[in-house]
Structures are given as C-alpha cells and as structure tokens.
Amino acid sequence: MTIFKSRLTDIGSAITTMPNAKAWWRCLLVYVAFLACVLPLGLAAGFLQPGLAPLPIAKLALLPIHLFLRPALVEELIFRAALLPRDSTRVSRRHLIGMSLFALAVFVVSHPLHAWLTRPAALGLFSSPVFLACATLLGIACTLAYLISRSLWPPVLLHWLSAWIWITLLGGRV
Q1: Is the Cβ–Cβ distance between 132 and 116 less than 8 Å?
Q2: 58 lies in a domain?
Q3: Region 54-75: what's the mean pLDDT?
C-alpha cells in the first residue's frame, strides 16, 4: 500500500507543480534536440510529409483540445507521472535508468497495442518502424522533461505540440 500511496502523492505533486523558468528553458532545449533528431529521420523515411492537413475546419478547431486530453495528458499521466519518480534523487541512478527504460518501453509498445485493440485500421501506421522510432524519441524527450521539471506540464506540452504538428502540418492521421 505504501508504494501505491507514494505513486499517488507523486502524481498529485506532478500535477500541481509549475516549473520555474530555468526548468522550462531546459525542457525547451530537450524539445529542440528531439526535433533535430525526429525531423530528419521522419522526412528522410517519407513518414513526415509537409502540408496542411485536409481536415474540416470544425475538426481542426477541436483537434488541439482532443490531442491535449488524449494522447498528451492521459499518456503523460500514465507513462511519466505514474511510472517514474518525481524526485529522481530518491532512487539510485541505476534504478532511475531502469525505471525510465521500462516506462519508455511500455510507452512505445502501447501505441501498436492500442491500435490493435481499438483502431485496427491504424495498426500499420502505429507499428511501423519509423513511427516507433519517432515515438521512442518523443518518449525520451518527455521523460527528460519530466525528470528535469518534476512536473507533468512540460512533457504534456511536448507531447501535445508534437502530435498537433504531426497531424496538422506533417501528414499524420487522426
């Protein structure tokens, strides 16, 4: 019961903590590094295809809200706040790396699993090696943002912005 209570406390603190300016800047650098890796990879593989999404205006208007709630908020609550320690100094470096790798693996595997269970038509997309590589890079960036900030909000913002840019400007599918 102590572990469960500790996780709930960490989640509550992650939700209510707003990072300071230094943490936001460090998270921004993480996001720039993520973009520097994922854009060349996705463009070279033809996975990212620049162009405005051919979506109806109503869907484009509601898309940011939808993407904020799911995947960004829900997935970051699960894969960062629930699975990682908010205070990384409470665990050994080896344990932190192990926990981070576990959370990352579950995050990446959840995408094709979710497609298989709920959206079989999207299984090809969500199980493609390039998508999984991009998801891995996003998971690493979100993990670093969470550990740097000790807050849920930087990884949520990184995840939300990435999904929104991918769908609206780089050929991602809804």
Answers
A1: no
A2: yes
A3: 96
Collapse the DSSP code of 14 into the 3-class scheme (helix H, G, I; strand E, B; otherwise coil) and give the result.
Answer: helix
**DSSP 8-class letter at 46:** T
174 assigned to some structural domain: no
Domain assignment present for 69: yes
Q: What backbone torsions phi and psi does residue 56 show, to the nearest 5 degrees?
A: -60, 150
Number of domains present in the structure of the chain: 1
If you ran DSSP here, which 8-state letter would residue 83 be given? Answer: T
Question: With 80 as the cut, is the pLDDT of residue 174 above it?
Answer: no
- Whether the pTM exceeds 0.70: the reply is yes
Does residue 1 register a pLDDT over 80? Answer: no
Percent of the chain residues past pLDDT 70, beyond the cut: 99
What is the C-alpha separation between 157 and 160, in angstroms, rounded? 5
Range of the domain at 60: 2-169
* Distance (Å, whole) CA 79 – CA 111: 12
* Residue (of 50, 68, 37) closest to 133 by Cα position: 37
